[in-house]
Amino acid sequence: MEDLESQIAELHASSFGWAMTCCRRDREDACEVLQQAYWKVLSGRARFEGRSSLRTWLFGVIRMTALEHARSARRRMREVPPPSEPPASGASPESSAADRQRAAVLAAAMERLPERQREVLHLVFYEDLTIEAASRVMDISLGTARTHYERGKEALASLLRKETTLERR
To answer: pTM of this prediction?
Structure first.
């Protein structure tokens, strides 16, 4: 159990990033989902059986917990908009502002993607998972994950091109 706790602690930053994606960038919901997922794992409600990497399995637990949380929130008729500002970096004020602007544009474009496309792109680009591992996290076939990945990349590129065109005007 102590080893599991230390492995989960090592994955915390990535787990939080994934929880943020699963919760549509709502920090409060992501924290709650992550706490519930950790509780499931540490209490034994969710058991790692070694059929994938611990990271892939944990991301699956987080995703399922986020889906449960969203269903519960919809029942309570509570919708919270995503935060509009990405976390600040330690760069100079000029580059920091530009980085924040680019991150905000990217986050806004990602939010406009269908859920599965957004999820697979997050797992592949931000969490450095393979498409195969992402398919296991998302509990979908590899072919379906590949389709969402390709369509998501195309849609994201199109959205970013439109945004860039609008900025130049």
So the answer is: 0.63
